[in-house]
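job 3f2a | input accepted
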Amino acid sequence: MTARYSTIVIGAGAIGSAAAYWLAKRGQRDVLVLEQFALGHAHGASNDHHRIIRHSYHDDAYGGLTRAMYDNWAALEEAAGQRVFVRTGGLDIAVEGTPGTESLERYRGVMDANGVRYETLDRAELLARFPQWRIPEERVRATYQEETGFIDIRRATATHIALAQGLGVEVRERTPARAIESFEAGAEGPGSAAGVRVRTDAGTLVADRVVVCAASWTDELLRPLGQSWRTTITEEQVVYVRPRELKPFSIGEFPVWVWHGEDFTYGFPTYGEVAVKLARENLSRVVTQDTRSAIPHADETAWLLAFLRKRLPAAAGEVVLEKTCPYDMTPDRDFILDAMPGHPNVIVGSGAAHAGKFCGLLGEILSELVVSGRSQYPIDAFRADRPALTDPSIPPVFNLRG
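job 3f2a | predicted structure (402 res):
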């Protein structure tokens, strides 16, 4: 007879690895993780040094989860004895009259609603505390929140996988899931329970439930099950630049920052590389996994260097690394944390290209959905049957400045 797993997790990236760990932590020992590439591969969005973690968010659906998000990371560090969260403090900056001022107001409102303390800085206070900035505009808004920092996403993913394997989870690398099929009770024989089949090149696997954490490969698996939405993939780019003056941009001297202007631009103090990292949400290069490129775009690098020269001139040194990465976005740019409509044993975990900071908590939530069918956390906004996913007359909206 074919072995039957309690749960098969498809995808060993940031969310899938966390889901596998939390399933094992809840007592499931017959969990299987299928990863189409090698662990730690660079084809997706879970292989880099940083993902910003912060309380400042555009919507209370996320702001209401940030405290649990921080607690989840603290629990992981305690369980593993590994450091994955680096606290730096964080700045959100906007010049009056630009679209970013509305974003800052929304962030502050969400933090107020959730009892998060922050500081409001005017231009003089901002430049006195962080003289690295060059901001000639007089009317500037800034928010500083001391708990902001970043998750070392590469280390976090590896830590989740290592803990999961230590608890008995089986991981199969280079084993892509080609198709999934849910079946009703009795289909596997008299008295058999409902479940899911997963077809691989090595044969078909069976599980009580499947958790799909396939990011930009999600549509290939869910479309045959009646998926009503389309995942949009864009090719984004980050640049690491060695500052001309190193110490002023080190951890403890310089925070994580977001510049809310015509573009959503963000960056980090030196970590991982002896360089600062910066990027912007471009969202203009729509690709597929077959058409995307790992070759950096010279025009994007030039744009980011021009930003440094204008706003952080002492950081505008030599480019030491450029990387592209995919964004996989749902039509409303919100998570999906729910069973697939019509397929109660297929659980979907989509991070909508901004889940790095949340991935540990999302793994916990997905494990709750598998084991008990519901979560203790407020996740109604992330249902798979919401209008933005099921009503084709609603146009996609990607830039939530989240």
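job 3f2a | The mean pLDDT is 96.
job 3f2a | closed
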